[in-house]
Amino acid sequence: MLLGAVADDLTGATDLALTLSREGMRAVQVVGVPPADFDFGDAEAVVVALKSRTIPAAEAVSLSLDAARAILSAGAEQIIFKYCSTFDSTPEGNIGPVAEALAGLLDAPLVLACPAFPANGRTVYQGHLFVGSMLLSDCPMKDHPLTPMTDANLVRVLQQQTKLPVGLIPYSVVDRGGEAIAAAFTEAETKGDRFVIVDAVTEDHLRAIGRAAADMKLITGGSGIAIGLPENFRRAGKLATRKADTTFAAPAGRAAILAGSCSAATRRQIAAAIAAGVPALKIDPIAIAEGNTTAAGVADWLASAGHPHPLAYSSADPDEVRSAQEKLGRDRAGGLVEHLLAEVAITLRENSFSRLIVAGGETSGAVVNGLGVAALRIGPEIDPGVPWTRSLDGGSPIALALKSGNFGADDFFLKAWDQLK
Ligand SMILES: Nc1ncnc2c1ncn2[C@@H]1O[C@H](COP(=O)(O)OP(=O)(O)O)[C@@H](O)[C@H]1O
Ligand SMILES: O=C(O)[C@@H](O)C(=O)COP(=O)(O)O
């Protein structure tokens, strides 16, 4: 193993594993901290998917350290801490505390932080995160049910989560390439910075940052930050030049879509699916709390919907989410939906469903944990950051498209199936 990664949610891990596999590494995604005797096979990159984005910071730190130790002892030479390209976090963390703890474990004097993912419109300029043409704080992430993002200034956001000094490596340096960036790392370290937000607007910037970070033990960011890393191993003669392995066989069986993401993108995808005639059942967290909506009922509805890929969704607009949260509390509302959709997935698999699209990072975490899947193989890309995956264990095989809430074109729920034909 050359590269090991700790990802703070399931869809984020899939996104990163896809990037590494596209860049020619044999990548495997593991769900949860792998046990000491876990067989990573011939993987050159391993991404450990945690569900640590919104749990208490101390728990996130402890899980992330365990995950990092597991991949280090399996031989990883460099560690990526993968978080969301929209820097999803709260004032308490968990990006700062986890990055700090991993830096301690790895004895890393300077930690770079760069969530840029240009293919999905996330760019960082003067330390400010843009989503398309909007500042992060103006985009729909301001209404996220669990991690509303209301400040686009990442130096300020990260500085709130750590006592260690946070600096910036601006566009004017990054645009000059790898050597200038490496010199800026040294300068930042000398100045006493322990974290640096690094601007990046294009994939060329990310490749240059990757090159400059060749000797860093710890790298943090979105999946984009990994684009330039495999080449470092190739240059060092440790990684063969090969094309991404795209062979993928999805198990035959019935299909369904489960959506727990409330993002604007997922809501557009649901609207497009409904407009195209996909039967859709809306799930209300209050009805779950009152016992009027059950997993068995939702699974029955999906099984008898008479369509190749029916949809069950709890996705709702910000006003509806706010109203459910006022009645139930933020965590209970989210937890009820996550638990229900995980139970639905379990029941579906028992009833010969073997192809699922799941929308939402936390939602995917709940579903994959519910299904008891411990590892995933990465298949073909549906849209930037979202591949089909196939369970490697945990009962009868299942094809899963774990879609980050924010990712995917409007027709994602319609077109994704074409790749399984
Ligand atoms: N109608 C709703 N009201 C309140 N919370 C909801 C509702 N539907 C889903 N949720 C919760 O919102 C969270 C969405 O997070 P996630 O699945 O990570 O989506 P995303 O990928 O868009 O961030 C989950 O915890 C989910 O259970
Ligand atoms: O970096 C990203 O945007 C994604 O890989 C990601 O982390 C997904 O998180 P969710 O939006 O919560 O699915």
TrEMBL record:
Belongs to the four-carbon acid sugar kinase family. InterPro entries: 4-carb_acid_sugar_kinase_N (IPR010737), 4-carb_acid_sugar_kinase_N_sf (IPR037051), NBD_C (IPR031475), NBD_C_sf (IPR042213), OtnK (IPR050007). Its EC number is 2.7.1.217. SUPFAM superfamilies: YgbK-like. It comes from Paramesorhizobium deserti. NCBIfam families: OxoTetrKin. This is 3-oxo-tetronate kinase. Residues 256-413 form the Four-carbon acid sugar kinase nucleotide binding domain. It catalyses: 3-dehydro-L-erythronate + ATP = 3-dehydro-4-O-phospho-L-erythronate + ADP + H(+); 3-dehydro-D-erythronate + ATP = 3-dehydro-4-O-phospho-D-erythronate + ADP + H(+). Catalyzes the ATP-dependent phosphorylation of 3-oxo-tetronate to 3-oxo-tetronate 4-phosphate.
